[in-house]
Every structure is written in C-alpha cells, then in structure tokens.
Amino acid sequence: MGVIVVERKILEKNDAIASEIRHTFEEKNVFALNLLSSPGSGKTSLIEQTIKNLKNKIHTAVIVGDVQTDNDAQRIGKLDIPVVQIITNGACHLEANLVRNAFSSINDKEIDLLFIENVGNLVCPAGFDLGEKYKVVMLSVTEGDDKPLKYPAVFRNASVFIINKIDLLPYLNCNIDEIKNNALSINPHLKIFEVSCTSSEGISKWCDWLISNTKQ
Questions:
Q1: I want to staple 122 with a disulfide (CB 3.0 to 4.6 A). Which of 95, 108, 151, 168 is the partner?
Q2: 20: phi then psi, degrees, rounded to nearest 5
Q3: Domain residue ranges of the chain, discontinuous segments joined by +
Q4: CATH architecture, domain 2-214
Q5: Each residue of 45-98: pLDDT tens digit?
C-alpha cells in the first residue's frame, strides 16, 4: 500500500504542475505535443523533417529529453530554432516540473508549435502529463505488428499515432494494417499518419494537420 500512496502523490503533484503549464500554453497560443516512442523509432528525424517542411510557415520550438548526451538537441539546433535539452541522468521519462523549467527559457520567443521529445520509452512516460495538448505515439515498422498490444497504456493515452519508416515495408515481414488494427483496438479514436522520414512520404499530410491546429 505504501508504494501505491507514494505513486499517487507523485502523479498528483505532477498533474498540478502540468495543469499550470497547460494554462500557460493556452494563454500564449502554443500548440504543444508530447512525442513518445521507443528508442530508434525516429522521433528526432520526424522533428527535423517537420521543421524543414514548416519553415516560414509557423514558429517551432523543441524541448528534448534524453537519459544522457545532448546529441539530439545539437541536431535540431542546426535548424536555427529554439531548443532546450533536458538530461534526466537515468530517469526514464520527463516530468512536468522539468518541462516548466525548460519552457521558461524560451517562453519569450514567438512560438506556435512546441515539440516535447520525451525519453525513448513506451512505459514510464505514458502516465505523466506534461501540459501538452496531445500525446503523440510513434512506432517504426521495424518494431513489429504487435507493439501496440504489448504497450497498451501509451496508445490508450495518445491522440495521434505515427507509423514511421514505411519505406522499409517491402523488405520486412510486417503488416501495416495489422499495426493499425491493433492500435485502434486499444484506442479507436487515434488519428494515424504513415510516414517515412527518409523519403518524406506522408510528411506533408502530417504538417498540414499541424498547421491546421496551430491556426485555430
């Protein structure tokens, strides 16, 4: 019982801070997305392709979460947008207080869209609200058809599902319809995008959706 009480207190404190952050985002008209995936699914590549596609259309900023190193933040920083790195030093997810502190260093910038690139993990980040408008879960076709069934919580809590690396489908024993059906069996309201960050297939549809939401 002690473990349950401690966990509840941690989540309650996190949710209170997340509510505060969400209010700040709404006041500033920032469309914030919490991007989750397992390591190697392509979160950073998606952000890079999105920024390039949206250049001169909307103002984007990124908060990057990693267990160690600032490699991803350095990659994104080359695109000349505001980037803040959070290094968790072993923690498997971002928490709302970390996002609040990171955003405080860029909230004076003109921002329409904020990506919160969470730590690569489909378990721990699923239950933590970061003040985002939507959770976006990402899966690459190399990870298997049954990934949504193995990690149902993150798909249940997400609003958007991105299937990446579709350019590799001809070389894999992977059924993309099975991936989608498994995800929709957990959350029938998921909005799904099929993309390749290598060939750019599907990126324009994803970016059109982002533009439509930032202009609301």
A1: 151
A2: -65, -45
A3: 2-214
A4: 3-Layer(aba) Sandwich (3.40)
A5: 999 999 999 998 999 999 998 877 677 788 888 999 999 999 887 678 899 999
